[in-house]
Every structure is written in structure tokens, then in C-alpha cells.
Design goal:
The structure is a single chain. With 517 residues, the protein is mainly beta. It is 10% helix and 42% strand. The radius of gyration is 32 Å and the shape is elongated.
Length: 517
């Protein structure tokens, strides 16, 4: 790690190199074998923070018993709500815990070469490593490492996804870089020149990047540039002692004057607050810890920070994580006839603050309906066993996508309920609006003018000569509007009714006639 850190006490990267010729051969053999093992607690438990100052109220040991290199243990952290992941610098290994954490001895551990930061962006998982420097993808199920996505002039350290796109931002020993299209055809562009940056965070609205330079004891804020501009301009330079590293940003509606404040995990066992509402005033809000490194914020809004041999979960949980408030609404006719065409118009909206990636709309059709077609404003739709699935891709904050599903009513009258649900890779702060149901009464006779929106339509005016047109007196037919009813079925029903009437009449006449002699 560049800068003025002490090699043993304050540098996670050089700890690996100092391990050197004695330990590395055995480690490399294990790495090549790709073995999976269960690690025990090789180091004594470090002391959790002893003092907390508002707005922090405490911390709990979340994941414990990591092996250490000197005083460097867990490094990269990632909480996705289903599992907790960590890397260590001693063995260049990746750990997979349950979402509730626990001892490292019960975690699944893979010698994977990953020894720096972890990130989840647009539903995919990424990591940086000093073993073969660069950004890699990895499989959260197996912890298998994918291909190298991008390399940089110097080691890549901190890593974060852009909430407004599928891009990644990477702190390196030579500035900050943007990786566009990381999953397809990566394009690497430098957005901040110079500086050995380490920890990094981005606001959920995508407008501000905060990045730390531990060797210079400073944290920088950068603002998103105007379209067409590559370089992110610096907006603030905040001195933070003790080797600033992992960063988290408070919610924009956090109470008590904490909104949008920045919190930093430092190498000297403290948590530092940068009060963005008071001229970036700096204060220590937790002390008495051990060596801190990277940090992460989970979908629960909690700040997880690395310490020498453990991960501590701080309280309260008021921090930003990528969230997208998706909602779904639909319109359907209130009534329809058997075998009549029915169309469901479904609107998916994203209230942000982040883009919704891998957005998926699922529409469960009522039983007995005949699927006709489905389409969406973006992406594609498929149908199987009465369930329509539309893969909408990314939906930016403030944007909407419309999907249309066409079906044909069944043979028997019934009450039809169509249910649509939407989800994305990001955490959703309001799941109550992710499902919408629409009911249609299916009757024997067709409905000429079904309701097509949730609000009642304007009353239909009484026909007049001006409305009907001058050709009305000449006997010309009016244009047919509204859904068409199958005439063949109407004729069949009429024939059946006539037949029933004839039988009744004949029986009636037979009953009143005198017997033949």
C-alpha cells in the first residue's frame, strides 16, 4: 500500500509480500489446487470498540476468528442479505458466512487468490486482488473466481458499483478508474488522476464518490461530471488521521443531523465521522478497536467494519446501500365475455434512488385463460404454464416500462384475478407496492366497452345527428368500437335458444291436443 503506513501495523498489502518466500509456496500450491477448507480461529480475539459517541451507540462481533498476518486479518467485506462474504490477506482466501455471520471456523473458505475488496453491483459479484492484480468476477454460490475483467497500471484496491449504470469504480495505486460494460466488453477510463486510493463509497443517487488515501491521511469527495466529461471534479479534501480506509455514507433522511454524513474505518482502531452538514467537521465516534480496513453496508443499512481478526457490526443502522423502489400497477377490463380478448397493461416504475438492475416482471395469468402474446417496452417476455416473465434489464431511477399481456377468456363465466409482481437485484425499501392484482368478471355475453384504466371513464354522450354523421339517414352502418365478440359463438347460442323454444312450444301444443281416435 503506498504512503507512510508502518509495514507491520498499518499495511495490509505489504503484509502479504512480507510473508514472502517461506509461507507463499505452500499457499500458492493450495491456491492452484483450488481447495475448500474450514478455517479455525488461529488468532486470539481482538477487543471490539470500547467507546462510542453519538450517533453510534455500539457494536457487536459479527464474524470472528479470522487468521491474521501481523495485525491484518479480514479485508474485503460484502453483505448481500443472504450471505456475508469476506477476504483475508494471509491466505488470499474468500469466506462465505450465513447472513447472520458467525465464527470463521464454520464458514466455507476457498483459496481463491482474492485478498482485497468485494462488491456486488447490478446483481453480479466482483473482487480485487493483489495476487494477480485486477478486477475479477466471482460466483457467490461456489466462490469460484471468473475471468479478469480489467487490469490497471497499479494495484486495484477499493471497488464499488455505479447505482446509475452497470459500471464499476475502482480505487487504485494510481487514481480512480471507471470500468464500463464489465460483463461484456469492458472499457477502462481514468476518472481521477494521481493518488494511492483505497476505500471507496458512492452515494445511492450516484452523484458523489468518497475515496480515502490512507498514506496521506485524507479523504476526498468527487462530484459526477456533466455528460460528455470523463474526469470527476474534486469537491472536498478532508484530513482524517489514523489511516482512513473503508467508507460508508449515511442515508439522506437519517435523523439527528446525520443525513449524508460520511463514516470512515481507520487503520488505528477508530471510526471517524465527517459531518457534511457542518463544513466537513471531523470527529471520532468509536475508539478502542484494532486495525480497521475495508467496510461495507448491507441491505439492512448496517455498517460492517473489518478489525484485526473479526468483523464488527455497528449500530444504529442508518447507512446508504443501493436500493431501488420498484412498483407495479396494471389496468384490465372490469368485465368481458367468454372467449373474448382481454388485455392487461402493466406499468413498472422505479422511484429510486438507484437504478434497478435485472428488473423482472412476473405475471401469473388466471386459470383457464388462453395466452395470446406478451411484450414490453424494453427487454423480452416469455410464457410458460400460465406465467409470463418479462426480463426488463435496467430501469433507471425515475423511469418506467410498460408491458402488455394479451389473453382470451375461458369457456365458462368466472371471476378472473391477474397478479403481476416485480423485483430487481437491488434491495427494495418498499415491498408493499411490488405486487398488483386486477379482477375481471367473465360473463356469458360480451362487454362492448370495458374499463381500461383504474379511474372511471367519462360518461358516453347521447348520440345526436352531428355525432352520427350525415350518412346515418342513408342507412350506412356505424363503425364498430370496443372488443369484438366471436359471431360464431353468438350464432351458436342463438340457435340453441331457438331450438329450446321450439321444443317447448311443441310440448305445450301436444299437451293441449285431444287424443286421436
Amino acid at each position: 500500500m503506498p504512503g507512510a503506513r508502518d509495514l507491520l501495523a498499518r499495511t495490509k498489502r505489504t503484509g502479504w509480500h512480507l510473508l514472502g518466500a517461506v509461507a507463499r509456496p505452500a499457499v500458492v500450491l493450495a491456491l492452484i489446487a483450488g481447495s475448500v477448507f474450514v478455517a479455525g480461529g488461529q488468532a486470539a480475539a481482538a477487543t471490539t470498540f470500547t467507546t462510542f459517541t453519538a450517533p453510534l451507540t455500539g457494536g457487536t462481533d459479527f464474524a470472528t476468528g479470522f487468521p491474521t498476518s501481523g495485525n491484518i486479518g479480514p479485508v474485503g467485506l460484502l453483505q448481500d442479505g443472504s450471505n456475508f462474504f469476506a477476504t483475508d490477506s494471509l491466505n488470499a482466501s474468500t469466506y462465505k458466512f450465513p447472513a447472520a455471520g458467525g465464527p470463521a471456523s464454520s464458514a466455507t473458505v476457498v483459496h481463491s487468490l482474492l485478498d482485497l475488496d468485494l462488491a456486488r453491483a447490478h446483481g453480479n459479484y466482483y473482487a480485487t486482488t493483489n495476487s494477480t492484480p485486477g478486477v475479477y468476477s466471482f460466483d457467490p454460490a461456489t466462490l469460484a473466481v471468473g475471468h479478469r475483467i480489467a487490469a490497471f497500471p497499479r494495484t486495484a484496491y477499493g471497488l464499488v458499483g455505479d447505482p446509475l449504470s452497470n459500471d464499476l469504480f475502482v480505487d487504485t495505486g494510481s487514481g480512480i478508474w471507471r470500468v464500463q460494460n464489465p460483463d461484456t466488453s469492458p472499457v477502462v477510463t481514468q476518472i481521477v488522476s494521481g493518488g494511492a486510493y483505497d476505500g471507496i463509497a458512492i452515494s445511492t443517487d450516484g452523484q458523489h464518490i468518497w475515496a480515502a488515501i490512507p498514506g496521506s491521511n485524507v479523504v476526498h469527495e468527487f462530484g459526477r461530471p456533466q455528460p460528455g466529461t470523463t474526469i470527476w471534479p474534486m469537491q472536498a479534501s478532508v484530513p482524517v488521521g489514523g489511516g482512513p480506509d473503508g467508507i460508508a455514507i449515511a442515508l439522506d433522511n437519517a435523523p439527528g443531523g446525520v443525513a449524508n454524513n460520511v463514516f470512515v474505518n481507520t487503520n488505528n482502531g477508530t471510526i471517524v465521522r465527517i459531518d457534511t452538514n457542518k463544513g466537513n467537521a471531523v470527529s471520532v465516534v468509536a475508539s478502542g478497536g484494532s486495525r480497521g480496513d475495508f467496510a461495507t453496508v448491507g441491505p439492512d443499512g448496517c455498517f460492517y467494519v473489518s478489525q484485526t481478526d473479526k468483523v464488527v457490526k455497528l449500530a444504529p443502522c442508518f447507512f446508504q446501500s443501493p436500493t431501488a423502489d420498484l412498483s407495479v400497477a396494471q389496468t384490465a377490463p372490469a368485465g368481458a365475455g367468454v372467449l373474448q380478448a382481454i388485455t392487461y397493461n402493466i406499468l413498472v416504475s422505479n422511484a429510486g434512488p438507484s437504478s434497478a438492475t435485472n428488473a423482472t416482471l412476473t405475471d401469473t395469468l388466471p386459470a383457464g385463460m388462453q395466452f395470446v402474446s406478451a411484450s414490453a417496452g424494453q427487454g423480452g417476455c416469455t410464457q410458460s404454464a400460465g406465467v409470463v416473465t418479462c426480463n426488463l434489464g435496467s430501469v433507471p431511477s425515475g423511469a418506467s416500462v410498460t408491458a402488455t399481456v394479451a389473453v382470451t377468456g375461458g369457456l365458462l363465466p368466472a371471476t378472473l384475478s391477474n397478479t403481476a409482481t416485480v423485483k430487481a437485484s437491488e434491495a427494495d425499501p418498499n415491498l408493499a407496492n411490488n405486487t398488483s392484482a386486477a379482477t375481471t368478471a367473465l360473463g356469458l355475453l360480451p362487454v362492448v366497452a370495458p374499463v381500461t384504466s383504474p379511474t372511471p371513464p367519462a360518461p358516453t354522450p347521447t348520440p345526436s345527428t352531428s355525432v352520427l354523421g350525415s350518412t346515418f339517414s342513408q342507412g350506412r352502418a356505424l363503425p364498430v368500437t370496443g372488443p369484438r365478440f366471436p359471431l360464431g359463438l353468438l350464432g351458436l347460442l342463438g340457435a340453441c335458444l331457438i331450438g329450446v323454444g321450439v321444443v317447448i312450444v311443441r310440448k305445450t301444443r301436444g299437451a293441449g291436443s285431444p287424443p286421436r281416435g
